[in-house]
Every structure is written in structure tokens, then in C-alpha cells.
Amino acid sequence: MARVVIDYSRCNLCGLCIQYCPGHVFSIINNRVVARDEYCVECYACVPLCPTRAISIEEPDP
Ligand code: SF4
Ligand code: SF4
Fold it and tell me: Which fold has domain 3-58?
């Protein structure tokens, strides 16, 4: 399973990831984007979508 990592020093809470992630991985809780990795379908759409480049997907070890 991939790990969805958010760089909180970059995230500006624009909400685009919440709107467009097909797995509904992202939500805002207590003014922070949280990612439920277990729903990630590894489409990688969020990486270029995030305007501040705050999201990265870490591949699982082979
Ligand atoms: S798209 Fe990027 S900047 Fe916008 S809420 Fe998601 S992680 Fe934060
Ligand atoms: S890689 Fe795709 S499914 Fe996974 S968090 Fe990003 S947009 Fe959502």
C-alpha cells in the first residue's frame, strides 16, 4: 500500500485534493488535511494537482 504524505509547511488548505481524489482519501480535520492512505488507488493525480506541491506518494517496499 502506498503512503500518502502531506507536507504541512506547504499545504494552504485549498481543498483541491479533497475535491478531485477518486479514492476520497483527503479530508480536513481540525484545520489540517488528513489522508487515509488505505483508500488510495495510486492514480497519482494529487501530486501534480496540488498547487503547492505538498503531496507526495511513497511507494511501498517491494
Ligand atoms: S491540494 Fe495541496 S495545498 Fe490544497 S489542500 Fe490538498 S494538500 Fe493542501
Ligand atoms: S494517488 Fe490518487 S487516489 Fe491516491 S491520494 Fe492521490 S489522488 Fe487520491
Answer: Alpha-Beta Plaits (3.30.70)
Whole-structure pTM value? 0.93
Q: Would you state the cell numbers that stand for residue 10, as one nine-digit string?
A: 506547504
Nearest residue (CA) to ligand 2, atom 2: 43
30-42: per-residue pLDDT in tens? 999 999 999 999 9
Which CA distances in Å does 18 have to 9, 34, 61, 62? 18, 10, 27, 29
| Cα(50) to centroid(ligand 2), Å | 11
Tell me the pLDDT tens digit for each residue of 3-37.
Answer: 999 999 999 999 999 999 999 999 999 999 999 99
